[in-house]
């Protein structure tokens, strides 16, 4: 379980690869210029790791479901939880749960579950959050780590905010596409005896392929 505070919280709030673009932190006084690392994508690349991204304040049902699935999965599991931190400069930390809802509503923090299975068909990734409904600027506007740059370097702040909005949009589109990827079985065009090889259950050479499937619905995990 990774509590993602997006800085090195236990050593004073230094910037890290998890820090989002435009945020002010130690060692990034003029705002971090590079986008946030996608830890979940790195873990999913192994192919046999259960990965989920959650935010308990945004969807507690999805969080519990992800933790139960991670515990039951017969292999390594990684659950990444969005975690508010005093280093973010949230004006009122008592609003942390509402703040997490805004992180999801803006598309800044997509909720998903990735379940590798031995089945030859199915959709391994389930997108549990809806399409963004508020601008990212509305979400980060109450955080000093972003507003501080607006006061000190307004032009740079505007440019980094534009790029942060773009990062969130691209991330949402990426996960929407992944949620529509159908696991299939693809074989060589001809078998060793010259006959056409089969495609589907029972064939060889399993690789994931895309199918024109709609993104998974978030209804089943909506509280």
Primary descriptors:
223 residues, alpha/beta, Rossmann fold, five-stranded mixed beta sheet
Describe the structure.
By secondary structure, the protein is of the alpha/beta class. It is 31% helix and 9% strand. The protein contains six helices and five strands. The chain has helices at residues 39-44, 60-72, 96-105, 136-140, 144-152, 154-179; strands at residues 2-4, 50-54, 77-82, 112-114, 125-127. A five-stranded mixed beta sheet has the order 1-3-2-4-5, sandwiched between helices. Helix 5 packs antiparallel against helix 6. The protein is globular, with a radius of gyration of 20 Å. It starts with a strand and ends in a 44-residue tail after the last helix.
* CATH fold annotation: Rossmann fold
Strand content: 5-15%
Number of helices: 6
Strand order of the largest sheet: 1-3-2-4-5
- Total number of beta strands: 5
Name the CATH superfamily classification. Answer: Thiamin diphosphate (ThDP)-binding fold, Pyr/PP domains
Number of domains: 1
Helix content: 25-40%
Classified by CATH, the class is Alpha Beta
- Report the order of strands and helices: EHEHEHEEHHH
Radius of gyration, Cα only, in angstroms?
20 Å
